[in-house]
Amino acid sequence: MRDAEAEAFVAERLREEQGGRASDAGSSEIQAVWDALGQMEAADFVADDGRAATGRVVNRRAWIAGGTLAAGVALGGVFLWRQQPVIYETEVGERRTIALPDGSQVTLNTASRISARFAGRQREVVLESGEAFFAVAHQDDAPFDVLSHAARIRVTGTRFNVYRHATFTDVDLLQGGVAVGPAAEPSQARLHLRAGQAVRLSSAGDPGPVSAAQGSRIDDWRQGRISFDRTSLRAAVVEMNRYSNAPLRILNPSLNALEIDGVFEAGDTAAFAKALGRLHGVSVRFDRGAWTLS
To answer: Can you tell me the distance from the alpha carbon of 45 to that of 56, in angstroms, rounded to the nearest whole number?
Structure first.
Protein backbone atom coordinates (compact mmCIF):
# COMPACT_ATOMS: atom_id res chain seq x y z
CA MET A 1 0.00 0.00 0.00
CA ARG A 2 1.18 3.56 -0.68
CA ASP A 3 2.63 5.48 2.23
CA ALA A 4 0.84 8.80 2.89
CA GLU A 5 4.10 10.58 3.66
CA ALA A 6 5.72 9.46 0.41
CA GLU A 7 2.65 10.34 -1.65
CA ALA A 8 2.51 13.80 -0.07
CA PHE A 9 6.15 14.31 -1.05
CA VAL A 10 5.42 13.43 -4.69
CA ALA A 11 2.33 15.64 -4.78
CA GLU A 12 4.28 18.57 -3.34
CA ARG A 13 6.97 18.22 -6.01
CA LEU A 14 4.24 18.34 -8.66
CA ARG A 15 2.70 21.46 -7.13
CA GLU A 16 6.06 23.21 -7.08
CA GLU A 17 6.75 22.33 -10.72
CA GLN A 18 3.30 23.37 -11.94
CA GLY A 19 3.09 26.53 -9.86
CA GLY A 20 0.06 25.53 -7.83
CA ARG A 21 -2.33 22.66 -7.13
CA ALA A 22 -1.48 19.41 -8.86
CA SER A 23 -3.67 19.01 -11.93
CA ASP A 24 -5.43 15.88 -13.09
CA ALA A 25 -2.42 15.31 -15.34
CA GLY A 26 -0.24 15.59 -12.25
CA SER A 27 -2.38 12.99 -10.45
CA SER A 28 -1.92 10.62 -13.35
CA GLU A 29 1.82 11.18 -13.11
CA ILE A 30 1.73 10.28 -9.41
CA GLN A 31 -0.15 7.12 -10.36
CA ALA A 32 2.45 6.32 -13.01
CA VAL A 33 5.27 6.75 -10.49
CA TRP A 34 3.59 4.48 -7.98
CA ASP A 35 2.89 1.94 -10.69
CA ALA A 36 6.56 1.98 -11.57
CA LEU A 37 7.52 1.52 -7.94
CA GLY A 38 5.01 -1.29 -7.71
CA GLN A 39 7.01 -3.24 -10.28
CA MET A 40 9.97 -3.43 -7.93
CA GLU A 41 10.61 -6.79 -6.37
CA ALA A 42 10.44 -7.36 -2.64
CA ALA A 43 14.15 -8.19 -2.77
CA ASP A 44 14.78 -4.60 -3.80
CA PHE A 45 13.89 -3.57 -0.26
CA VAL A 46 16.07 -6.14 1.52
CA ALA A 47 19.27 -4.95 3.21
CA ASP A 48 22.29 -6.07 1.20
CA ASP A 49 24.66 -6.39 4.13
CA GLY A 50 25.14 -10.11 4.44
CA ARG A 51 22.00 -10.53 6.51
CA ALA A 52 19.53 -10.83 3.62
CA ALA A 53 19.11 -14.56 4.25
CA THR A 54 17.55 -13.84 7.62
CA GLY A 55 14.73 -11.95 5.92
CA ARG A 56 15.62 -8.69 7.63
CA VAL A 57 14.17 -5.83 5.57
CA VAL A 58 15.12 -2.19 5.35
CA ASN A 59 13.69 0.14 7.97
CA ARG A 60 10.24 1.49 6.93
CA ARG A 61 11.42 5.12 6.91
CA ALA A 62 14.43 4.17 4.78
CA TRP A 63 12.00 2.51 2.34
CA ILE A 64 9.98 5.73 2.22
CA ALA A 65 13.13 7.73 1.50
CA GLY A 66 14.17 5.31 -1.23
CA GLY A 67 10.70 5.29 -2.71
CA THR A 68 10.40 9.05 -2.74
CA LEU A 69 13.88 9.31 -4.25
CA ALA A 70 12.82 6.95 -7.03
CA ALA A 71 9.62 8.94 -7.45
CA GLY A 72 11.60 12.15 -7.63
CA VAL A 73 13.88 10.69 -10.30
CA ALA A 74 10.90 9.45 -12.30
CA LEU A 75 9.06 12.75 -12.00
CA GLY A 76 12.24 14.64 -12.84
CA GLY A 77 12.41 12.60 -16.03
CA VAL A 78 8.81 13.55 -16.85
CA PHE A 79 9.48 17.26 -16.28
CA LEU A 80 12.77 17.14 -18.18
CA TRP A 81 10.94 15.54 -21.11
CA ARG A 82 8.32 18.29 -20.94
CA GLN A 83 10.99 20.95 -21.21
CA GLN A 84 12.72 19.49 -24.27
CA PRO A 85 12.15 21.71 -27.33
CA VAL A 86 9.79 20.47 -30.02
CA ILE A 87 10.95 20.94 -33.61
CA TYR A 88 8.66 22.04 -36.44
CA GLU A 89 9.85 22.60 -40.00
CA THR A 90 8.76 22.92 -43.62
CA GLU A 91 10.30 21.81 -46.88
CA VAL A 92 10.96 24.09 -49.85
CA GLY A 93 7.60 25.27 -51.18
CA GLU A 94 5.67 24.06 -48.13
CA ARG A 95 3.61 26.14 -45.68
CA ARG A 96 2.37 24.83 -42.37
CA THR A 97 0.25 26.20 -39.50
CA ILE A 98 0.95 24.78 -36.03
CA ALA A 99 -1.19 25.08 -32.90
CA LEU A 100 1.14 25.63 -29.94
CA PRO A 101 0.42 24.29 -26.42
CA ASP A 102 -0.57 27.72 -25.03
CA GLY A 103 -3.24 28.37 -27.67
CA SER A 104 -0.97 30.45 -29.92
CA GLN A 105 -0.51 29.66 -33.61
CA VAL A 106 2.52 29.89 -35.85
CA THR A 107 2.55 29.59 -39.64
CA LEU A 108 5.85 28.56 -41.19
CA ASN A 109 6.79 29.77 -44.64
CA THR A 110 8.90 27.78 -47.11
CA ALA A 111 12.06 26.04 -45.85
CA SER A 112 11.61 27.20 -42.25
CA ARG A 113 12.43 25.60 -38.92
CA ILE A 114 11.57 26.48 -35.32
CA SER A 115 12.17 24.87 -31.94
CA ALA A 116 9.47 25.53 -29.34
CA ARG A 117 9.77 25.17 -25.58
CA PHE A 118 6.77 25.52 -23.24
CA ALA A 119 7.22 24.79 -19.54
CA GLY A 120 5.36 26.54 -16.72
CA ARG A 121 5.46 30.27 -17.49
CA GLN A 122 8.12 29.85 -20.16
CA ARG A 123 6.96 30.33 -23.76
CA GLU A 124 9.91 30.42 -26.12
CA VAL A 125 10.33 29.78 -29.85
CA VAL A 126 13.67 29.86 -31.67
CA LEU A 127 13.46 30.66 -35.39
CA GLU A 128 16.38 28.62 -36.66
CA SER A 129 15.77 29.36 -40.34
CA GLY A 130 13.21 30.88 -42.69
CA GLU A 131 10.11 32.89 -41.86
CA ALA A 132 7.22 32.55 -39.43
CA PHE A 133 3.99 34.40 -38.71
CA PHE A 134 2.81 34.36 -35.08
CA ALA A 135 -0.65 34.85 -33.59
CA VAL A 136 0.10 34.81 -29.86
CA ALA A 137 -2.45 34.00 -27.16
CA HIS A 138 -2.40 36.71 -24.47
CA GLN A 139 -1.09 35.73 -21.02
CA ASP A 140 -0.27 38.52 -18.57
CA ASP A 141 2.19 36.50 -16.51
CA ALA A 142 3.86 34.61 -19.35
CA PRO A 143 5.64 36.61 -22.05
CA PHE A 144 6.14 34.94 -25.42
CA ASP A 145 9.71 35.13 -26.74
CA VAL A 146 10.92 34.57 -30.29
CA LEU A 147 14.69 34.28 -30.73
CA SER A 148 16.54 34.74 -34.04
CA HIS A 149 20.33 34.94 -34.22
CA ALA A 150 21.14 36.80 -30.98
CA ALA A 151 17.92 38.88 -31.08
CA ARG A 152 14.85 38.54 -28.88
CA ILE A 153 11.29 39.58 -29.78
CA ARG A 154 9.07 39.60 -26.68
CA VAL A 155 5.27 39.90 -26.60
CA THR A 156 2.29 39.03 -24.42
CA GLY A 157 -0.30 38.75 -27.18
CA THR A 158 -0.09 40.00 -30.77
CA ARG A 159 0.25 39.15 -34.48
CA PHE A 160 3.64 39.61 -36.08
CA ASN A 161 6.03 38.21 -38.69
CA VAL A 162 9.69 37.26 -38.23
CA TYR A 163 11.97 36.61 -41.22
CA ARG A 164 15.48 35.36 -40.46
CA HIS A 165 18.05 36.24 -43.13
CA ALA A 166 21.70 35.17 -43.19
CA THR A 167 22.98 38.14 -41.14
CA PHE A 168 19.88 39.96 -39.86
CA THR A 169 16.21 39.51 -38.91
CA ASP A 170 13.15 41.43 -40.12
CA VAL A 171 10.26 41.95 -37.70
CA ASP A 172 6.89 43.21 -38.97
CA LEU A 173 4.18 43.95 -36.40
CA LEU A 174 0.58 43.83 -37.60
CA GLN A 175 -1.29 43.96 -34.28
CA GLY A 176 -0.44 44.57 -30.62
CA GLY A 177 3.05 45.46 -29.44
CA VAL A 178 6.47 43.86 -29.27
CA ALA A 179 9.75 44.68 -27.56
CA VAL A 180 12.96 43.88 -29.42
CA GLY A 181 16.65 43.80 -28.58
CA PRO A 182 19.55 41.46 -27.80
CA ALA A 183 18.51 38.06 -26.45
CA ALA A 184 20.91 38.45 -23.54
CA GLU A 185 18.93 41.46 -22.25
CA PRO A 186 15.31 40.23 -21.93
CA SER A 187 14.38 42.88 -19.36
CA GLN A 188 16.03 45.79 -21.20
CA ALA A 189 14.43 45.98 -24.64
CA ARG A 190 16.11 48.40 -27.03
CA LEU A 191 12.92 49.24 -28.93
CA HIS A 192 9.13 48.92 -28.62
CA LEU A 193 7.16 48.57 -31.86
CA ARG A 194 3.54 49.59 -32.38
CA ALA A 195 1.06 48.01 -34.79
CA GLY A 196 1.97 48.78 -38.40
CA GLN A 197 5.68 49.20 -37.69
CA ALA A 198 8.68 47.10 -38.70
CA VAL A 199 12.37 46.95 -37.86
CA ARG A 200 15.48 45.14 -39.01
CA LEU A 201 17.59 43.61 -36.23
CA SER A 202 21.29 42.91 -36.63
CA SER A 203 22.61 39.43 -35.87
CA ALA A 204 23.51 40.79 -32.41
CA GLY A 205 19.93 41.98 -31.86
CA ASP A 206 20.54 45.71 -32.32
CA PRO A 207 17.54 47.44 -33.98
CA GLY A 208 17.85 49.67 -37.04
CA PRO A 209 15.44 52.43 -38.12
CA VAL A 210 11.69 51.84 -37.75
CA SER A 211 9.78 51.47 -41.04
CA ALA A 212 6.27 50.52 -42.18
CA ALA A 213 5.24 46.88 -41.80
CA GLN A 214 4.86 44.95 -45.06
CA GLY A 215 1.38 43.64 -44.36
CA SER A 216 0.51 42.93 -47.99
CA ARG A 217 3.69 40.89 -48.55
CA ILE A 218 2.94 38.84 -45.45
CA ASP A 219 -0.66 38.26 -46.52
CA ASP A 220 0.63 37.15 -49.92
CA TRP A 221 2.99 34.47 -48.67
CA ARG A 222 0.40 33.15 -46.24
CA GLN A 223 -1.90 32.68 -49.25
CA GLY A 224 0.82 31.14 -51.42
CA ARG A 225 1.34 34.22 -53.61
CA ILE A 226 4.24 36.51 -54.46
CA SER A 227 3.62 40.08 -55.64
CA PHE A 228 6.11 42.31 -57.42
CA ASP A 229 5.78 46.06 -57.95
CA ARG A 230 8.60 47.49 -60.06
CA THR A 231 10.91 44.90 -58.51
CA SER A 232 14.27 44.23 -60.16
CA LEU A 233 14.49 40.86 -61.89
CA ARG A 234 17.46 39.98 -59.72
CA ALA A 235 15.43 40.49 -56.51
CA ALA A 236 12.37 38.78 -58.00
CA VAL A 237 14.39 35.70 -58.92
CA VAL A 238 15.81 35.46 -55.39
CA GLU A 239 12.27 35.58 -53.96
CA MET A 240 10.83 33.07 -56.43
CA ASN A 241 13.68 30.65 -55.80
CA ARG A 242 12.83 30.48 -52.09
CA TYR A 243 9.77 28.41 -52.96
CA SER A 244 11.00 26.03 -55.68
CA ASN A 245 13.44 23.19 -56.26
CA ALA A 246 13.52 24.19 -59.95
CA PRO A 247 15.33 27.52 -59.58
CA LEU A 248 15.68 30.44 -61.98
CA ARG A 249 19.15 31.39 -63.23
CA ILE A 250 20.00 34.72 -64.89
CA LEU A 251 22.69 34.09 -67.50
CA ASN A 252 22.71 37.61 -68.92
CA PRO A 253 23.66 40.20 -66.24
CA SER A 254 22.04 42.98 -68.27
CA LEU A 255 18.66 41.50 -67.23
CA ASN A 256 19.27 42.06 -63.51
CA ALA A 257 17.75 45.55 -63.47
CA LEU A 258 14.65 44.61 -65.53
CA GLU A 259 11.57 45.75 -63.56
CA ILE A 260 8.94 43.13 -62.80
CA ASP A 261 5.27 43.69 -61.95
CA GLY A 262 2.58 41.14 -61.24
CA VAL A 263 1.31 38.43 -58.92
CA PHE A 264 2.67 34.88 -59.20
CA GLU A 265 2.01 31.58 -57.51
CA ALA A 266 4.75 30.79 -55.01
CA GLY A 267 6.83 27.89 -56.29
CA ASP A 268 5.71 28.12 -59.91
CA THR A 269 9.01 29.18 -61.46
CA ALA A 270 7.93 27.75 -64.81
CA ALA A 271 5.01 30.18 -65.12
CA PHE A 272 7.25 33.05 -64.02
CA ALA A 273 9.91 32.19 -66.62
CA LYS A 274 7.37 31.85 -69.41
CA ALA A 275 5.80 35.20 -68.48
CA LEU A 276 9.22 36.82 -68.81
CA GLY A 277 9.55 35.35 -72.27
CA ARG A 278 6.13 36.62 -73.41
CA LEU A 279 6.19 40.07 -71.80
CA HIS A 280 9.87 41.01 -71.96
CA GLY A 281 11.29 38.93 -74.79
CA VAL A 282 13.62 37.06 -72.44
CA SER A 283 15.05 33.82 -73.81
CA VAL A 284 13.90 30.99 -71.53
CA ARG A 285 15.24 27.43 -71.41
CA PHE A 286 14.88 24.56 -68.95
CA ASP A 287 18.25 22.90 -68.46
CA ARG A 288 19.47 20.47 -65.79
CA GLY A 289 16.63 21.16 -63.39
CA ALA A 290 16.78 24.98 -63.65
CA TRP A 291 15.14 27.72 -65.72
CA THR A 292 17.82 29.79 -67.46
CA LEU A 293 17.11 33.39 -68.48
CA SER A 294 19.17 35.15 -71.13
So the answer is: 10
